[in-house]
Amino acid sequence: MRLKAYIYSLLLITIAGGYGCKKDNYEEPESLLTGRVVFEGQPIGVRSNAVQLELWQHGYAFFSKIRVFVAPDGTYSARLFDGDYKMTRQNGGPWLSNTDSIDVKVRGNTVVDVPVTPYTFVKSATYQRNGATITATANLQTVSTANALESVRLYVFRTALVDDVNQSARTVVQASAIPNTSQPVSMNVTIPAALTSLDAVYVRVGVKTAGINELAYSSAEKIALK
Fold first, then answer.
1. pLDDT tens readout for residues 95-151
2. Which residues is 224 bridged to in the sheet?
3. What pLDDT, on the 0 to 100 scale, is given for residue 176?
């Protein structure tokens, strides 16, 4: 009986060991899909962890979407297995809805830019600091008038993850005070006292379109304080 019990225990250990090896040898995806959300080659900035793309791969038993968040600077990345995917642009971004999917062939590291049609976005922005006041001059571009411009906003924060949620102070210029979006828009924001001891702060301009929750942002800019 003891011999039988020993053989049975040894068999269980062998099976468990083999199962463990299979788990340890499970392949991880090795190809990196990267790109940008762009309009005419220019990336459109967004709020951190707010805007998603979706990837779908047909032909497998478990057919489910792969969520891919767009980074604040308009870039994205996903670690995938080689294969053919469908990419969709989720509603909710600061651009026109587009239900068309994009064919994506991943073969090793792959770069695919995702075209979007923004309403109004920040084409460029420059900043100047005078004491505790930062002045921004933003050049806007209106692409679609399907929804009207609501406001242009200037933010200041302690990190580069600055947006309408992550901000220490902001200035809002309503659309009624911007008669012509083809002309530069200037605005000021005051650095809060709580941030003045830092070596630097970050600023960013966002454009709010009426009826659209998410803003289109410029890139975050570092402003040295010392």
1. 999 989 999 999 999 999 999 999 999 999 999 999 999 999 999 999 999 999 999
2. 200
3. 97
Partners of 123 in beta bridges? none
Burial 154-173 (b: 16+ CB within 10 A, else e): bbbbbebbbbbebbbbbbbb
Q: Which tens digit of pLDDT belongs to each residue from 68-102?
A: 999 999 999 999 999 999 999 988 999 999 989 99
Q: In what order do the strands lie in the sheet with 102-106?
A: 66-69, 52-56, 83-89, 102-106
Token output for 78: 């996903």
The whole-model pTM stands at: 0.85
- Indicate the fold that domain 31-115 takes in CATH: Immunoglobulin-like (2.60.40)
For residue 83, count other CB atoms closer than 10 A to its CB.
Answer: 16
Q: The tokens 């692409």 sit on which residue?
A: 143
In this prediction, residue 93 carries a pLDDT of 95
Domain residue ranges of the chain, discontinuous segments joined by +: 31-115, 120-224
Contacts of 194 (CB under 8 A, 6+ apart): 168
The full length of the chain comes to 226
The correct CATH number of 120-224 out of 1.10.150.20, 1.20.120.80, 2.60.40.2060, 3.30.465.10 is 2.60.40.2060
